[in-house]
Design brief:
1 helix; mainly beta; 2 strands; two-stranded antiparallel ribbon
């Protein structure tokens, strides 16, 4: 078991953005200027409507997207 200090960051993002090309000329901005800090040991929820970018954000955090 690892014990972490309550103020230790488990995840931090600042100014994150992500765009996807759709077709030859269309670009969809999935995330724009996202800042997030999650403390170690904290219970955190990510909520929002369909298409808000929740999955994209989690995929970036997991290292599955650049």
């Amino acid at each position: 078991m690892t014990v972490t200090a309550p103020d230790e960051r488990a995840l931090a993002m600042d100014g994150l953005g992500k765009s996807f090309s759709v077709g030859k000329r269309r670009v969809v901005r999935a995330l724009e200027d996202i800042s997030l800090e999650v403390r170690a040991g904290a219970v955190t929820a990510l909520v929002g409507p369909d298409g808000a970018g929740k999955s994209t954000l989690l995929r970036i955090a997991a290292g599955l997207l650049k």
